[in-house]
Amino acid sequence: MGKQTWQRDWRKESVVYQIYPRSFFDASGDGIGDLKGIRQKLDYIKELGADIIWLCPIYKSPNHDNGYDISNYRDIMDEFGTMRDFDELLQDAHSLGIKIMLDLVVNHTSSEHPWFIESKKSKDNSYRDYYIWRDGKNGGPPNNWESFFSGPAWTYDDASKQYYLHLFEKNQPDLNWENPDVRAEIYDMMKWWLDKGVDGFRMDTINMLSKSPGLPDGKPILGTPYGDRNPYMMNGPRIHEFLQEMNREVLSRYDIISVGETPDVTPDDALLYVSPKRNELNMVFQFDHMGLDYEGLKWCDPVFDLVKLKKILSQWQIGLNGRGWNSLFWNNHDQPRVVSRFGNDGQYRVLSAKMLAVCLYMMQGTPYIYQGEELGMTNADFKSIKQYRDIETHNAYYEFTQNRSVAPEDMMRYLSKVSRDNARTPMQWDGTENAGFTKSVPWISVNSNYREINAEAERLDSDSVFNFYKTIIRLRKENPIIIYGDYELLMPEDKAVFAYLRRLENKTLLVACNFSENEQVLELPFDLSVGTAGAVGGVAEGAVAEGTARLLISNYQSVESGNVKSSRIKSGAALRPYEAVCWIVEGK
Ligand code: TEU
Protein backbone atom coordinates (compact mmCIF):
# COMPACT_ATOMS: atom_id res chain seq x y z
CA MET A 1 0.00 0.00 0.00
CA GLY A 2 1.38 3.47 -0.87
CA LYS A 3 1.91 6.27 1.62
CA GLN A 4 -1.18 6.50 3.78
CA THR A 5 -2.85 9.80 3.13
CA TRP A 6 -5.72 9.55 5.58
CA GLN A 7 -6.14 9.83 9.36
CA ARG A 8 -7.49 6.53 10.74
CA ASP A 9 -10.29 6.67 13.32
CA TRP A 10 -12.11 3.70 14.95
CA ARG A 11 -15.41 5.58 14.74
CA LYS A 12 -15.03 5.83 10.97
CA GLU A 13 -13.98 2.18 10.57
CA SER A 14 -16.71 0.72 12.77
CA VAL A 15 -20.09 -0.71 11.80
CA VAL A 16 -22.93 -0.06 14.23
CA TYR A 17 -25.83 -2.47 14.85
CA GLN A 18 -28.96 -0.79 16.21
CA ILE A 19 -31.09 -2.78 18.65
CA TYR A 20 -34.67 -1.87 19.61
CA PRO A 21 -34.58 -3.96 22.81
CA ARG A 22 -38.37 -4.32 23.09
CA SER A 23 -38.43 -6.31 19.84
CA PHE A 24 -35.04 -8.01 19.84
CA PHE A 25 -35.17 -11.18 21.99
CA ASP A 26 -37.31 -12.07 25.03
CA ALA A 27 -35.33 -14.19 27.52
CA SER A 28 -37.68 -13.64 30.49
CA GLY A 29 -40.77 -14.99 28.72
CA ASP A 30 -43.06 -11.96 29.17
CA GLY A 31 -43.47 -11.16 25.46
CA ILE A 32 -41.10 -8.18 25.60
CA GLY A 33 -37.44 -8.22 24.58
CA ASP A 34 -34.90 -7.66 27.37
CA LEU A 35 -31.20 -7.20 28.21
CA LYS A 36 -30.67 -10.88 29.01
CA GLY A 37 -32.02 -11.61 25.54
CA ILE A 38 -29.51 -9.26 23.91
CA ARG A 39 -26.71 -10.92 25.89
CA GLN A 40 -27.76 -14.30 24.48
CA LYS A 41 -27.50 -12.92 20.92
CA LEU A 42 -24.07 -11.26 21.14
CA ASP A 43 -22.51 -14.14 19.18
CA TYR A 44 -24.95 -13.43 16.33
CA ILE A 45 -23.90 -9.77 16.26
CA LYS A 46 -20.24 -10.80 16.42
CA GLU A 47 -20.73 -13.21 13.51
CA LEU A 48 -22.34 -10.43 11.45
CA GLY A 49 -19.18 -8.39 12.05
CA ALA A 50 -20.62 -5.33 13.81
CA ASP A 51 -18.27 -3.44 16.15
CA ILE A 52 -20.71 -1.30 18.12
CA ILE A 53 -24.24 -1.86 19.42
CA TRP A 54 -26.57 1.16 19.68
CA LEU A 55 -29.18 0.33 22.32
CA CYS A 56 -32.44 2.28 22.05
CA PRO A 57 -33.47 3.58 25.49
CA ILE A 58 -33.22 1.02 28.30
CA TYR A 59 -33.92 3.42 31.20
CA LYS A 60 -36.91 3.40 33.58
CA SER A 61 -39.93 4.55 31.61
CA PRO A 62 -43.75 4.32 31.62
CA ASN A 63 -43.34 3.52 27.89
CA HIS A 64 -45.82 5.94 26.38
CA ASP A 65 -43.19 6.24 23.64
CA ASN A 66 -41.42 2.92 24.25
CA GLY A 67 -38.61 4.29 26.38
CA TYR A 68 -38.23 7.75 24.81
CA ASP A 69 -40.03 9.05 27.91
CA ILE A 70 -37.58 8.54 30.74
CA SER A 71 -38.57 8.64 34.42
CA ASN A 72 -35.14 7.68 35.84
CA TYR A 73 -31.95 8.08 33.78
CA ARG A 74 -29.91 5.93 36.18
CA ASP A 75 -32.02 2.80 36.38
CA ILE A 76 -33.16 0.10 33.95
CA MET A 77 -36.74 -0.19 32.65
CA ASP A 78 -38.55 -2.98 34.56
CA GLU A 79 -39.45 -4.87 31.39
CA PHE A 80 -35.80 -4.98 30.25
CA GLY A 81 -34.31 -6.30 33.51
CA THR A 82 -31.91 -4.86 36.09
CA MET A 83 -28.75 -2.77 36.23
CA ARG A 84 -26.89 -6.03 36.96
CA ASP A 85 -28.25 -7.36 33.64
CA PHE A 86 -26.87 -4.27 31.93
CA ASP A 87 -23.48 -4.54 33.61
CA GLU A 88 -23.21 -8.20 32.53
CA LEU A 89 -24.28 -7.34 28.98
CA LEU A 90 -21.66 -4.58 28.79
CA GLN A 91 -18.97 -6.88 30.18
CA ASP A 92 -19.79 -9.68 27.72
CA ALA A 93 -19.94 -7.28 24.79
CA HIS A 94 -16.56 -5.81 25.68
CA SER A 95 -15.07 -9.29 26.06
CA LEU A 96 -16.17 -9.94 22.46
CA GLY A 97 -14.65 -6.65 21.31
CA ILE A 98 -18.07 -5.05 20.83
CA LYS A 99 -18.70 -1.55 22.14
CA ILE A 100 -22.08 -0.34 23.43
CA MET A 101 -23.53 3.14 22.87
CA LEU A 102 -26.67 4.26 24.67
CA ASP A 103 -29.54 6.43 23.46
CA LEU A 104 -29.35 9.85 25.14
CA VAL A 105 -32.85 11.37 25.36
CA VAL A 106 -32.40 14.79 26.94
CA ASN A 107 -34.67 17.13 25.00
CA HIS A 108 -37.47 15.87 27.24
CA THR A 109 -38.19 13.50 30.11
CA SER A 110 -41.24 11.49 31.09
CA SER A 111 -43.98 13.40 32.92
CA GLU A 112 -43.35 10.80 35.64
CA HIS A 113 -39.76 11.93 36.15
CA PRO A 114 -39.34 13.33 39.72
CA TRP A 115 -38.12 16.61 38.22
CA PHE A 116 -41.43 17.13 36.41
CA ILE A 117 -43.51 15.91 39.34
CA GLU A 118 -41.83 18.60 41.46
CA SER A 119 -41.91 21.21 38.69
CA LYS A 120 -45.66 20.79 38.32
CA LYS A 121 -46.40 21.30 42.02
CA SER A 122 -46.23 25.07 41.98
CA LYS A 123 -45.02 28.07 40.02
CA ASP A 124 -42.19 28.86 42.37
CA ASN A 125 -40.45 25.61 43.25
CA SER A 126 -36.79 24.99 42.39
CA TYR A 127 -37.70 22.56 39.62
CA ARG A 128 -40.29 24.81 37.91
CA ASP A 129 -37.66 26.17 35.55
CA TYR A 130 -36.41 22.69 34.62
CA TYR A 131 -39.24 22.68 32.09
CA ILE A 132 -40.87 25.19 29.74
CA TRP A 133 -43.99 26.68 31.35
CA ARG A 134 -45.86 29.62 29.86
CA ASP A 135 -49.15 31.49 30.35
CA GLY A 136 -51.79 30.89 27.71
CA LYS A 137 -52.60 33.36 24.93
CA ASN A 138 -56.10 34.41 23.81
CA GLY A 139 -57.59 31.58 25.87
CA GLY A 140 -55.40 28.94 24.27
CA PRO A 141 -51.81 27.65 24.16
CA PRO A 142 -48.87 30.09 24.20
CA ASN A 143 -48.22 29.51 20.46
CA ASN A 144 -49.46 27.58 17.44
CA TRP A 145 -46.91 24.77 17.41
CA GLU A 146 -48.05 21.19 16.69
CA SER A 147 -46.59 18.16 18.44
CA PHE A 148 -44.70 15.64 16.29
CA PHE A 149 -47.33 13.23 17.56
CA SER A 150 -50.38 15.28 16.46
CA GLY A 151 -52.31 17.81 18.51
CA PRO A 152 -50.98 20.95 20.18
CA ALA A 153 -47.39 20.96 21.51
CA TRP A 154 -48.74 22.39 24.80
CA THR A 155 -50.81 20.92 27.64
CA TYR A 156 -52.62 23.01 30.22
CA ASP A 157 -52.02 22.36 33.91
CA ASP A 158 -55.08 23.26 35.93
CA ALA A 159 -53.23 23.48 39.25
CA SER A 160 -50.72 26.12 38.22
CA LYS A 161 -52.84 27.64 35.43
CA GLN A 162 -50.02 27.43 32.91
CA TYR A 163 -49.15 25.36 29.84
CA TYR A 164 -46.03 23.23 29.47
CA LEU A 165 -44.26 22.52 26.17
CA HIS A 166 -43.95 19.00 24.74
CA LEU A 167 -42.72 18.70 21.16
CA PHE A 168 -43.75 15.06 21.31
CA GLU A 169 -46.39 13.34 23.47
CA LYS A 170 -47.96 15.19 26.43
CA ASN A 171 -46.16 12.67 28.64
CA GLN A 172 -42.81 13.93 27.30
CA PRO A 173 -42.35 17.48 28.67
CA ASP A 174 -39.45 19.39 27.10
CA LEU A 175 -36.53 20.19 29.40
CA ASN A 176 -35.48 23.82 29.64
CA TRP A 177 -31.89 23.83 28.37
CA GLU A 178 -31.65 27.54 29.04
CA ASN A 179 -31.39 26.52 32.70
CA PRO A 180 -27.74 25.77 33.63
CA ASP A 181 -28.92 23.48 36.44
CA VAL A 182 -30.63 21.24 33.86
CA ARG A 183 -27.49 21.07 31.76
CA ALA A 184 -25.36 20.24 34.80
CA GLU A 185 -27.74 17.41 35.78
CA ILE A 186 -27.54 15.96 32.27
CA TYR A 187 -23.74 16.16 32.11
CA ASP A 188 -23.47 14.41 35.49
CA MET A 189 -25.76 11.64 34.27
CA MET A 190 -23.74 11.21 31.07
CA LYS A 191 -20.50 10.91 33.02
CA TRP A 192 -22.14 8.37 35.33
CA TRP A 193 -22.82 6.07 32.37
CA LEU A 194 -19.45 6.71 30.72
CA ASP A 195 -17.66 5.93 33.97
CA LYS A 196 -19.47 2.56 33.89
CA GLY A 197 -17.72 1.90 30.58
CA VAL A 198 -20.38 2.85 28.06
CA ASP A 199 -18.73 3.69 24.72
CA GLY A 200 -20.82 6.63 23.55
CA PHE A 201 -24.25 8.05 22.79
CA ARG A 202 -26.80 8.38 20.02
CA MET A 203 -28.37 11.72 20.90
CA ASP A 204 -32.13 11.87 20.41
CA THR A 205 -33.53 15.06 18.79
CA ILE A 206 -30.35 16.80 19.85
CA ASN A 207 -30.78 19.81 17.54
CA MET A 208 -34.07 20.69 19.28
CA LEU A 209 -32.56 21.64 22.65
CA SER A 210 -32.37 25.37 21.94
CA LYS A 211 -35.67 27.11 21.24
CA SER A 212 -36.01 30.66 19.86
CA PRO A 213 -36.60 33.27 22.58
CA GLY A 214 -40.26 34.18 22.91
CA LEU A 215 -41.31 30.86 21.36
CA PRO A 216 -43.05 32.70 18.50
CA ASP A 217 -45.97 31.43 16.43
CA GLY A 218 -44.96 29.64 13.23
CA LYS A 219 -46.17 30.54 9.74
CA PRO A 220 -49.69 29.04 9.45
CA ILE A 221 -49.79 25.60 7.80
CA LEU A 222 -52.66 25.39 5.34
CA GLY A 223 -55.39 22.96 6.28
CA THR A 224 -54.34 22.81 9.90
CA PRO A 225 -54.83 25.01 13.00
CA TYR A 226 -51.05 24.98 13.49
CA GLY A 227 -47.98 26.95 12.43
CA ASP A 228 -44.52 25.89 11.27
CA ARG A 229 -42.54 25.32 14.47
CA ASN A 230 -39.28 24.19 12.80
CA PRO A 231 -37.58 27.60 12.40
CA TYR A 232 -38.03 28.16 16.14
CA MET A 233 -37.02 24.77 17.61
CA MET A 234 -34.54 23.20 15.19
CA ASN A 235 -30.86 24.25 15.17
CA GLY A 236 -31.78 27.07 17.58
CA PRO A 237 -29.69 30.11 18.62
CA ARG A 238 -27.74 28.42 21.48
CA ILE A 239 -27.53 24.83 20.19
CA HIS A 240 -23.84 24.96 19.35
CA GLU A 241 -23.03 26.70 22.63
CA PHE A 242 -24.80 23.88 24.47
CA LEU A 243 -23.09 21.11 22.49
CA GLN A 244 -19.66 22.68 22.82
CA GLU A 245 -20.28 22.90 26.55
CA MET A 246 -21.37 19.23 26.58
CA ASN A 247 -18.22 18.33 24.67
CA ARG A 248 -16.03 20.32 27.07
CA GLU A 249 -17.70 19.00 30.22
CA VAL A 250 -18.20 15.37 29.10
CA LEU A 251 -17.50 14.06 25.61
CA SER A 252 -13.92 15.28 25.25
CA ARG A 253 -12.94 13.45 28.43
CA TYR A 254 -13.60 9.95 27.04
CA ASP A 255 -12.63 7.95 23.94
CA ILE A 256 -16.21 7.54 22.76
CA ILE A 257 -18.51 7.85 19.74
CA SER A 258 -21.25 10.46 19.50
CA VAL A 259 -23.94 10.71 16.83
CA GLY A 260 -26.65 13.35 16.93
CA GLU A 261 -30.14 12.82 15.59
CA THR A 262 -30.65 16.07 13.70
CA PRO A 263 -33.72 16.27 11.47
CA ASP A 264 -33.90 19.31 9.17
CA VAL A 265 -30.20 20.01 8.58
CA THR A 266 -28.31 20.69 5.34
CA PRO A 267 -24.73 19.46 4.83
CA ASP A 268 -23.50 22.96 5.76
CA ASP A 269 -25.63 22.93 8.93
CA ALA A 270 -24.27 19.47 9.73
CA LEU A 271 -20.68 20.67 9.47
CA LEU A 272 -21.40 23.02 12.36
CA TYR A 273 -22.12 19.89 14.44
CA VAL A 274 -19.50 17.46 13.11
CA SER A 275 -16.49 19.40 11.82
CA PRO A 276 -13.65 18.23 14.14
CA LYS A 277 -12.59 21.82 14.81
CA ARG A 278 -16.05 22.57 16.23
CA ASN A 279 -15.56 20.18 19.16
CA GLU A 280 -19.18 19.08 19.22
CA LEU A 281 -20.17 15.63 17.81
CA ASN A 282 -18.51 12.93 15.69
CA MET A 283 -21.38 12.60 13.22
CA VAL A 284 -25.12 13.17 12.79
CA PHE A 285 -28.16 11.40 11.33
CA GLN A 286 -29.59 13.58 8.58
CA PHE A 287 -33.05 12.73 7.21
CA ASP A 288 -33.13 14.21 3.70
CA HIS A 289 -33.23 10.71 2.16
CA MET A 290 -35.85 9.63 4.72
CA GLY A 291 -38.38 12.15 3.55
CA LEU A 292 -37.79 12.19 -0.21
CA ASP A 293 -40.80 9.95 -0.90
CA TYR A 294 -43.24 11.88 1.32
CA GLU A 295 -45.25 14.71 -0.23
CA GLY A 296 -44.20 17.08 2.55
CA LEU A 297 -46.43 15.07 4.88
CA LYS A 298 -45.55 11.62 6.22
CA TRP A 299 -49.13 10.24 6.06
CA CYS A 300 -49.35 9.67 2.31
CA ASP A 301 -48.77 7.15 -0.48
CA PRO A 302 -44.99 7.55 -0.72
CA VAL A 303 -43.49 8.09 -4.20
CA PHE A 304 -39.89 6.92 -4.64
CA ASP A 305 -37.67 8.94 -6.99
CA LEU A 306 -34.15 7.55 -7.54
CA VAL A 307 -32.84 10.77 -9.11
CA LYS A 308 -33.80 12.62 -5.91
CA LEU A 309 -32.12 9.92 -3.78
CA LYS A 310 -28.92 10.13 -5.85
CA LYS A 311 -28.84 13.92 -5.56
CA ILE A 312 -29.39 13.83 -1.80
CA LEU A 313 -26.84 11.15 -0.93
CA SER A 314 -24.27 12.67 -3.31
CA GLN A 315 -24.70 16.10 -1.69
CA TRP A 316 -23.92 14.55 1.68
CA GLN A 317 -20.99 12.48 0.38
CA ILE A 318 -19.37 15.47 -1.28
CA GLY A 319 -20.45 18.04 1.32
CA LEU A 320 -18.80 16.28 4.25
CA ASN A 321 -15.83 14.64 2.51
CA GLY A 322 -12.62 15.78 4.17
CA ARG A 323 -14.56 18.25 6.35
CA GLY A 324 -16.77 16.09 8.59
CA TRP A 325 -18.18 12.56 8.66
CA ASN A 326 -21.42 10.92 7.52
CA SER A 327 -23.59 8.30 9.15
CA LEU A 328 -25.07 5.82 6.67
CA PHE A 329 -28.50 4.36 7.38
CA TRP A 330 -31.54 3.10 5.48
CA ASN A 331 -33.50 2.03 8.55
CA ASN A 332 -34.09 2.66 12.20
CA HIS A 333 -36.91 2.14 14.73
CA ASP A 334 -38.78 5.14 13.31
CA GLN A 335 -38.55 4.33 9.61
CA PRO A 336 -40.26 1.71 7.41
CA ARG A 337 -38.14 -1.24 6.27
CA VAL A 338 -35.99 -0.17 3.31
CA VAL A 339 -36.55 -3.30 1.21
CA SER A 340 -40.27 -2.49 1.26
CA ARG A 341 -39.71 1.26 0.82
CA PHE A 342 -36.94 1.62 -1.80
CA GLY A 343 -36.54 -2.01 -2.95
CA ASN A 344 -38.94 -4.82 -3.85
CA ASP A 345 -40.25 -6.97 -1.00
CA GLY A 346 -41.94 -9.41 -3.37
CA GLN A 347 -40.29 -11.34 -6.19
CA TYR A 348 -36.97 -9.47 -5.87
CA ARG A 349 -36.75 -9.19 -2.07
CA VAL A 350 -33.37 -10.89 -1.67
CA LEU A 351 -31.75 -9.27 -4.71
CA SER A 352 -33.03 -5.80 -3.88
CA ALA A 353 -32.08 -6.07 -0.19
CA LYS A 354 -28.53 -6.92 -1.24
CA MET A 355 -28.51 -4.16 -3.86
CA LEU A 356 -29.59 -1.57 -1.30
CA ALA A 357 -26.81 -2.68 1.02
CA VAL A 358 -24.18 -2.31 -1.73
CA CYS A 359 -25.56 1.07 -2.75
CA LEU A 360 -25.27 2.63 0.71
CA TYR A 361 -22.50 0.77 2.49
CA MET A 362 -19.93 1.27 -0.25
CA MET A 363 -20.14 4.99 0.55
CA GLN A 364 -18.11 7.11 2.96
CA GLY A 365 -19.55 7.15 6.47
CA THR A 366 -20.24 4.93 9.47
CA PRO A 367 -22.94 2.33 8.68
CA TYR A 368 -25.84 1.92 11.12
CA ILE A 369 -27.54 -1.42 10.43
CA TYR A 370 -30.94 -1.76 12.10
CA GLN A 371 -31.97 -5.13 13.57
CA GLY A 372 -33.51 -7.35 10.89
CA GLU A 373 -32.22 -5.25 7.99
CA GLU A 374 -29.43 -7.81 7.61
CA LEU A 375 -32.13 -10.47 7.07
CA GLY A 376 -34.09 -8.48 4.51
CA MET A 377 -37.04 -8.16 6.91
CA THR A 378 -40.04 -6.39 5.42
CA ASN A 379 -42.74 -3.96 6.57
CA ALA A 380 -45.42 -5.32 8.89
CA ASP A 381 -48.50 -7.03 7.44
CA PHE A 382 -51.05 -5.47 9.82
CA LYS A 383 -54.69 -5.32 8.73
CA SER A 384 -56.24 -3.51 11.71
CA ILE A 385 -55.38 -0.34 13.61
CA LYS A 386 -55.61 -2.54 16.72
CA GLN A 387 -52.41 -4.32 15.70
CA TYR A 388 -50.42 -1.08 15.84
CA ARG A 389 -48.71 -0.07 19.10
CA ASP A 390 -46.95 3.19 18.25
CA ILE A 391 -48.20 6.40 19.91
CA GLU A 392 -47.31 8.43 16.82
CA THR A 393 -49.35 6.07 14.64
CA HIS A 394 -52.41 5.99 16.87
CA ASN A 395 -52.44 9.76 17.38
CA ALA A 396 -52.09 10.36 13.64
CA TYR A 397 -54.81 7.82 12.81
CA TYR A 398 -57.20 9.62 15.15
CA GLU A 399 -56.18 13.13 14.02
CA PHE A 400 -56.44 12.42 10.29
CA THR A 401 -59.61 10.31 10.29
CA GLN A 402 -61.45 12.42 12.89
CA ASN A 403 -60.21 15.95 12.20
CA ARG A 404 -58.84 15.96 8.67
CA SER A 405 -61.42 13.87 6.81
CA VAL A 406 -59.03 11.15 5.70
CA ALA A 407 -60.87 7.88 5.05
CA PRO A 408 -59.88 5.10 7.48
CA GLU A 409 -58.99 2.78 4.59
CA ASP A 410 -56.67 5.44 3.14
CA MET A 411 -55.04 6.00 6.51
CA MET A 412 -54.57 2.23 6.95
CA ARG A 413 -52.85 2.14 3.57
CA TYR A 414 -50.57 5.01 4.59
CA LEU A 415 -49.74 3.25 7.90
CA SER A 416 -48.84 0.04 6.07
CA LYS A 417 -46.13 2.03 4.29
CA VAL A 418 -44.90 4.63 6.78
CA SER A 419 -45.82 3.66 10.37
CA ARG A 420 -42.87 3.29 12.75
CA ASP A 421 -44.29 -0.11 13.75
CA ASN A 422 -43.15 -1.45 10.37
CA ALA A 423 -39.67 -1.57 11.91
CA ARG A 424 -40.81 -2.70 15.37
CA THR A 425 -42.23 -6.16 14.70
CA PRO A 426 -40.18 -8.76 16.57
CA MET A 427 -36.79 -9.83 15.26
CA GLN A 428 -37.23 -13.08 13.31
CA TRP A 429 -34.80 -15.63 14.82
CA ASP A 430 -36.13 -18.91 13.43
CA GLY A 431 -39.16 -20.69 11.98
CA THR A 432 -40.68 -21.72 15.31
CA GLU A 433 -43.70 -19.99 16.88
CA ASN A 434 -43.34 -16.22 17.17
CA ALA A 435 -40.16 -16.52 15.09
CA GLY A 436 -38.34 -17.65 18.21
CA PHE A 437 -38.63 -14.12 19.67
CA THR A 438 -40.67 -15.14 22.70
CA LYS A 439 -42.30 -18.16 24.33
CA SER A 440 -45.15 -15.87 25.40
CA VAL A 441 -47.55 -13.58 23.54
CA PRO A 442 -45.42 -10.92 21.81
CA TRP A 443 -46.16 -7.29 22.69
CA ILE A 444 -46.63 -6.68 18.94
CA SER A 445 -47.48 -9.20 16.21
CA VAL A 446 -44.70 -11.06 14.47
CA ASN A 447 -44.62 -10.64 10.68
CA SER A 448 -46.27 -13.71 9.13
CA ASN A 449 -43.29 -14.20 6.76
CA TYR A 450 -41.00 -15.33 9.57
CA ARG A 451 -40.85 -18.96 8.40
CA GLU A 452 -39.14 -17.77 5.18
CA ILE A 453 -37.21 -14.81 6.62
CA ASN A 454 -35.27 -15.65 9.80
CA ALA A 455 -31.73 -15.62 11.15
CA GLU A 456 -31.39 -19.38 11.60
CA ALA A 457 -32.25 -20.14 7.96
CA GLU A 458 -30.11 -17.32 6.64
CA ARG A 459 -27.01 -18.15 8.65
CA LEU A 460 -27.07 -21.59 6.97
CA ASP A 461 -27.69 -20.20 3.46
CA SER A 462 -24.48 -18.92 1.83
CA ASP A 463 -26.60 -16.89 -0.61
CA SER A 464 -28.71 -15.19 2.08
CA VAL A 465 -29.03 -11.48 2.79
CA PHE A 466 -27.39 -12.13 6.16
CA ASN A 467 -24.25 -13.65 4.61
CA PHE A 468 -24.19 -10.88 2.01
CA TYR A 469 -24.16 -8.28 4.81
CA LYS A 470 -21.33 -10.20 6.47
CA THR A 471 -19.37 -9.93 3.22
CA ILE A 472 -20.01 -6.21 2.85
CA ILE A 473 -18.89 -5.56 6.43
CA ARG A 474 -15.75 -7.64 5.84
CA LEU A 475 -14.98 -5.79 2.58
CA ARG A 476 -15.25 -2.44 4.35
CA LYS A 477 -12.64 -3.54 6.81
CA GLU A 478 -10.34 -4.92 4.11
CA ASN A 479 -10.53 -1.96 1.70
CA PRO A 480 -9.71 1.52 3.05
CA ILE A 481 -10.97 3.00 -0.24
CA ILE A 482 -14.53 2.18 0.86
CA ILE A 483 -14.09 4.06 4.13
CA TYR A 484 -11.76 6.90 3.19
CA GLY A 485 -12.07 7.28 -0.60
CA ASP A 486 -13.52 10.28 -2.44
CA TYR A 487 -16.91 10.07 -4.17
CA GLU A 488 -18.16 10.90 -7.65
CA LEU A 489 -21.68 10.27 -8.93
CA LEU A 490 -22.11 8.81 -12.43
CA MET A 491 -25.26 8.88 -14.61
CA PRO A 492 -26.90 11.58 -12.41
CA GLU A 493 -30.13 11.79 -14.38
CA ASP A 494 -30.70 8.07 -14.92
CA LYS A 495 -33.99 7.06 -13.31
CA ALA A 496 -33.03 3.44 -12.52
CA VAL A 497 -29.27 3.14 -12.12
CA PHE A 498 -27.30 4.47 -9.12
CA ALA A 499 -23.63 4.35 -10.11
CA TYR A 500 -20.69 6.09 -8.50
CA LEU A 501 -16.94 6.01 -8.16
CA ARG A 502 -14.75 6.01 -5.09
CA ARG A 503 -11.10 6.93 -5.39
CA LEU A 504 -8.21 6.63 -2.96
CA GLU A 505 -4.56 6.90 -3.98
CA ASN A 506 -4.03 4.57 -6.96
CA LYS A 507 -7.34 2.73 -6.61
CA THR A 508 -10.77 3.31 -8.16
CA LEU A 509 -13.94 1.58 -6.97
CA LEU A 510 -16.91 1.42 -9.34
CA VAL A 511 -20.31 0.79 -7.72
CA ALA A 512 -23.31 0.16 -9.97
CA CYS A 513 -26.82 -0.60 -8.70
CA ASN A 514 -30.00 -1.21 -10.67
CA PHE A 515 -33.01 -0.01 -8.63
CA SER A 516 -35.50 -1.54 -11.07
CA GLU A 517 -36.90 -4.90 -12.13
CA ASN A 518 -35.93 -4.23 -15.73
CA GLU A 519 -32.54 -4.63 -17.36
CA GLN A 520 -30.67 -1.33 -17.53
CA VAL A 521 -27.57 -0.09 -19.35
CA LEU A 522 -24.51 1.02 -17.42
CA GLU A 523 -23.00 4.08 -19.09
CA LEU A 524 -19.44 4.72 -18.03
CA PRO A 525 -17.31 7.77 -18.96
CA PHE A 526 -14.57 5.27 -19.61
CA ASP A 527 -14.15 1.57 -20.27
CA LEU A 528 -12.80 -0.77 -17.71
CA SER A 529 -11.02 -3.32 -19.80
CA VAL A 530 -10.47 -6.14 -17.45
CA GLY A 531 -8.27 -9.08 -17.22
CA THR A 532 -4.95 -9.65 -15.60
CA ALA A 533 -4.05 -6.14 -16.60
CA GLY A 534 -6.72 -3.65 -17.48
CA ALA A 535 -6.77 0.02 -18.25
CA VAL A 536 -9.04 2.61 -16.87
CA GLY A 537 -9.62 5.89 -18.64
CA GLY A 538 -9.39 8.94 -16.44
CA VAL A 539 -12.56 10.98 -16.68
CA ALA A 540 -11.83 14.68 -16.54
CA GLU A 541 -8.22 14.71 -17.61
CA GLY A 542 -8.61 11.98 -20.18
CA ALA A 543 -5.53 10.27 -18.88
CA VAL A 544 -5.44 6.52 -19.10
CA ALA A 545 -4.07 4.70 -16.12
CA GLU A 546 -2.92 1.13 -16.52
CA GLY A 547 -4.21 -1.12 -13.78
CA THR A 548 -5.78 -4.42 -12.88
CA ALA A 549 -9.47 -4.70 -12.14
CA ARG A 550 -11.24 -7.25 -10.02
CA LEU A 551 -14.82 -7.91 -9.03
CA LEU A 552 -15.27 -7.01 -5.37
CA ILE A 553 -18.87 -8.07 -4.83
CA SER A 554 -21.98 -8.90 -6.84
CA ASN A 555 -25.48 -9.90 -5.82
CA TYR A 556 -25.75 -12.16 -8.87
CA GLN A 557 -22.63 -14.22 -8.53
CA SER A 558 -20.14 -15.21 -5.90
CA VAL A 559 -16.86 -13.47 -6.48
CA GLU A 560 -14.32 -15.73 -8.21
CA SER A 561 -10.80 -15.04 -7.10
CA GLY A 562 -8.96 -12.69 -9.42
CA ASN A 563 -10.23 -12.05 -12.90
CA VAL A 564 -13.68 -12.12 -14.38
CA LYS A 565 -15.24 -11.81 -17.80
CA SER A 566 -14.45 -8.32 -19.07
CA SER A 567 -17.68 -8.03 -21.06
CA ARG A 568 -19.62 -7.23 -17.95
CA ILE A 569 -18.28 -3.77 -17.30
CA LYS A 570 -17.60 -1.99 -20.51
CA SER A 571 -19.69 1.12 -21.00
CA GLY A 572 -23.05 -0.07 -22.22
CA ALA A 573 -22.84 -3.20 -20.06
CA ALA A 574 -26.23 -4.51 -19.01
CA LEU A 575 -27.36 -4.46 -15.39
CA ARG A 576 -29.91 -7.18 -14.61
CA PRO A 577 -32.97 -6.59 -12.39
CA TYR A 578 -31.80 -5.17 -9.03
CA GLU A 579 -28.20 -6.08 -9.92
CA ALA A 580 -25.48 -4.56 -7.78
CA VAL A 581 -21.84 -4.90 -8.73
CA CYS A 582 -18.59 -3.41 -7.46
CA TRP A 583 -15.28 -3.42 -9.27
CA ILE A 584 -12.00 -2.25 -7.85
CA VAL A 585 -9.29 -1.05 -10.21
CA GLU A 586 -5.78 -0.82 -8.87
CA GLY A 587 -3.48 1.46 -10.80
CA LYS A 588 0.26 1.11 -10.82
O1 TEU B 1 -37.37 10.86 16.85
C1 TEU B 1 -37.27 12.27 16.61
C2 TEU B 1 -37.99 12.69 15.42
O2 TEU B 1 -37.60 13.59 14.70
C3 TEU B 1 -39.27 12.05 15.14
O3 TEU B 1 -40.18 13.03 14.68
C4 TEU B 1 -39.07 11.05 14.06
O4 TEU B 1 -38.49 11.69 12.93
C5 TEU B 1 -40.45 10.53 13.74
O5 TEU B 1 -40.73 9.68 14.81
C6 TEU B 1 -40.44 9.82 12.41
O6 TEU B 1 -41.79 9.58 12.09
C7 TEU B 1 -36.74 10.52 18.09
C8 TEU B 1 -36.81 9.02 18.30
O7 TEU B 1 -36.07 8.36 17.28
C9 TEU B 1 -38.26 8.62 18.30
O8 TEU B 1 -38.39 7.20 18.40
C10 TEU B 1 -38.93 9.28 19.47
O9 TEU B 1 -40.32 8.99 19.44
C11 TEU B 1 -38.74 10.81 19.44
O10 TEU B 1 -37.41 11.19 19.16
C12 TEU B 1 -39.08 11.42 20.79
O11 TEU B 1 -38.08 11.05 21.70
Please give a structural write-up:
This protein is an alpha/beta fold. The protein is 27% helix and 17% strand. The chain folds into four domains: 351 residues, Glycosidases (TIM Barrel), CATH 3.20.20; 52 residues, Oligo-1,6-glucosidase, domain 2; 36 residues, no CATH class; 101 residues, Golgi alpha-mannosidase II (Immunoglobulin-like). It has an eight-stranded parallel sheet with strand order 11-10-9-5-2-1-13-12. It has a seven-stranded antiparallel sheet with strand order 14-15-16-22-20-19-18. Strands 6-8-7 form a three-stranded antiparallel sheet, with no helix packed on it. Strand 10, helix 9 and strand 11 form a beta-alpha-beta unit. About 5% of the residues have low confidence. Bound molecules: 1-O-alpha-D-glucopyranosyl-D-fructose. The site of 1-O-alpha-D-glucopyranosyl-D-fructose has 14 residues, from loops.
Key phrases:
seven-stranded antiparallel β-sheet, 17 helices, 27% helix, 4 domains, Oligo-1,6-glucosidase, domain 2, TIM Barrel, eight-stranded parallel β-sheet, 588 residues, alpha/beta, binds 1-O-alpha-D-glucopyranosyl-D-fructose
